[in-house]
Amino acid sequence: MVTMEVLFDGVRVKLFFCRMGKHGKWHGLLTTNTALDFFSAYRIYAMRWAIEVCFEEMKGYLRLGKCQARNFTAQIASISLTMLQYNILCFMKRFDSYETIGGLFGEITIGTAEMTIVDRVWLLVVEVVTEIAGIISADYNELMREAICGNSHLHAMFVHEYAELERGKFTCES
């Protein structure tokens, strides 16, 4: 490993050059913090690189930043759900397999990457209502009908968002 301090474009920087093995390629690392030793600079670089990889994978595989909503809250929710998906996928990768993360994302996101945030939230609602119906031994469809038809705001939202999906399956008339 070779270390040197130089003046680069009027700024004092520290350069680290190292190579793996006797005949490996040389790699360079530059820092403006001249007080750092190589291992501290490398540790910071590794953390920053992990963040770069995280955002690249979320943008490429989970469509981070592709939400077209004009509502700020929807944008925040989309980013939050994407990061939650990423954390769950990384957790699965860490404990289930040692495959490349790209392959795992490719498998998982085939069906979910195209879903809008409304669809994602709706699937969560359906899952929660299904669980509750099982716990209290109620019919899922009847429970959904009571929840949606009993609340004018939910009914209006449901009719607006899911009318064509549920056409013929859902009516508020008993």
Rounded Rg: 26 Å
Order of helices and strands: EEEHHHHHH
Number of beta strands: 3
Mean pLDDT, rounded to whole units? 79
Strand ordering within the main sheet: 1-2-3
User: Span between N and C termini?
Assistant: 79 Å
Structural class by sheet pairing and helices: alpha+beta
Quaternary arrangement of the chains shown? single chain
* Helix percent band: 55-70%
Uncertain segments of ≥5 residues (pLDDT<50)?
A: 164-168
Number of helices: 6
Portion in beta strands = 5-15%
What do these coordinates show?
- This protein is α+β, with helices and mostly antiparallel strands and 174 residues long.
- Helices cover 58% and strands 13% of the residues.
- The protein has helices spanning 38-61, 72-96, 101-112, 117-135, 140-149, 152-162; strands at 2-8, 11-19, 26-31.
- A hairpin with a 6-residue loop joins strand 2 and strand 3.
- The longest helix is centred in the middle third of the chain and has 25 residues, at 72-96.
Task: Describe this structure in a few short sentences.
With 174 residues, this protein is of the alpha+beta class. 58% of the residues lie in helices and 13% in strands. It has six helices and three strands; from the N terminus they run E-E-E-H-H-H-H-H-H.
